[in-house]
Amino acid sequence: MDRPQEVARAWAGVMEIRRLNGDTTVPAPWELARMEWSVALALEAAGLPASHVDGRGRLARVGYRVTRSPGPDAARVEWRGPDAFAARRDAPTRLQDCRAALERLGWAATLYQRSGGKHFLTVTPSPAPRV
Fold first, then answer.
1. Which of 17, 32, 74, 85 is most buried when burial is the number of CB atoms within 10 A of its CB?
2. How far apart are CA 68 and CA 63, in angstroms?
3. pLDDT digits (tens, 9 = 90+) for 22-68
4. How does pLDDT run across 76-90, given as a tens digit for each residue?
5. Which of 41, 43, 40 is CA-nearest to residue 11?
6. In which order are the strands placed within the sheet that holds 119-125?
7. Rg (CA), the chain
8. 3-state secondary structure of 1
9. 87 vs 82: CA distance, rounded Å
């Protein structure tokens, strides 16, 4: 099985977990217990590229990187790549792409800019819709 098929299968499993929890539009408790993994899977399922570190620890491919956010119950998404200047230049646009994809898939994402110009997203679960 190739990577796109694996991702599609994993995302279908996540959607089944959401369905069993009663709402496919918001992350399930199972996802919240695995925030970084769940956010990364949502981005990959949406077709966005992940950054990649080679065997020597160097960035080898431009894309998103998901880490735990310093805040509670949140993940952080950065845009990284081997050419740091290009990655930083493209970050606002590419992170907006990530934000849109995450919001379609039940997450809330807010774009921030740190001093020095570095952009990142803070990702949290979307609130459940009111009935």
1. 74
2. 17
3. 999 999 999 999 999 999 999 999 999 999 989 998 888 999 999 99
4. 999 999 898 999 999
5. 41
6. 63-68, 75-80, 119-125, 107-113
7. 15
8. coil
9. 8
**Closest by CA position to 120, among listed 103, 99, 101:** 99
Confidence band (pLDDT; 50, 70, 90) for 70? confident
**What pLDDT does residue 65 have?**
96
- Tell me which residue of 121, 119, 67, 52 sits closest to 90, measured CA to CA: 119
Distances (CA, A) of 129 to 21, 27, 83, 86, 93: 14, 12, 41, 38, 28
CA neighbor of 14 nearest in space, from 123, 37, 65: 37
For the record, the structure tokens of 35 come out as: 């925030």
102-118 pLDDT tens trace: 999 999 999 999 888 89
Query: What is the C-alpha to C-alpha distance for residues 42 and 46, in angstroms, rounded to an integer?
Result: 6
The one-letter code for the residue type at 59 is L
Angstrom distance (rounded) from CA 10 to CA 88: 30
Query: Residue 128's pLDDT is what?
Result: 64
